[in-house]
Amino acid sequence: QVQLVESGGGLVQAGGSLRLSCHRSGRSSSYNSMAWFRQATGQERELVAGISSGGTTYYPESVKGRFTISRDSAKNTLYLQMNSLKPEDTAVYYCAARWATIVSIIPTEYEYWGQGTQVTVSS
């Protein structure tokens, strides 16, 4: 079993920055991938950043150049650095993990999820 706990969300003005953290506990393995998803009100959950077991990162065009995913294996923590935030980045952000080694953009292919953290960007 894997537990994921996000933190770091909040209210920020457009153009500002936030860093989200996801602490992982329980059963662990280096042979898996992790990701950050977000879900805005009335929208489907979408991938905003992923990192494979080998460290390859993936970003959709909507956040490329503004968001950076990273992990600290010693601390069992995944991060999402978000810069140049826009009002359309407002959503609940979720940390997710899957046993497969490569990133997937499909939410249902992740076995473990955090509870989510709210990010609100004001204009």
Describe this protein's structure.
The model has no long low-confidence stretch (mean pLDDT 94). With 123 residues, this protein is an all-beta fold. Strands 2, 4, 5, 6, 9, 10 and 11 form a seven-stranded mixed β-sheet that branches. A four-stranded antiparallel β-sheet has the order 1-3-8-7, with no helix packed on it. The N and C termini lie far apart (40 Å). It has no helices and eleven strands.
Name the features.
123 residues, 7-stranded mixed β-sheet, globular, 50% strand, 0% helix, mainly beta
Tell me the radius of gyration.
Answer: 13 Å
- Please report the total strand number as a whole number: 11
In whole angstroms, the N-to-C terminal distance is 40 Å
Major beta sheet, specifics? 7 strands, mixed
- List the quaternary state of the chains: single chain
Please report which band the strand proportion falls in: under 5%, 5-15%, 15-25%, 25-35%, 35-45% or over 45%. over 45%
Q: How many DSSP helices?
A: 0
3D shape: globular
The percentage helix is under 10%
Layout of SSEs?
Layout: E1 2-7, E2 10-13, E3 18-26, E4 33-39, E5 46-51, E6 57-58, E7 67-72, E8 77-82, E9 91-98, E10 112-113, E11 117-122
Parallel strand pairs: 2-11
Antiparallel strand pairs: 1-3, 3-8, 4-5, 4-9, 5-6, 7-8, 9-10, 9-11
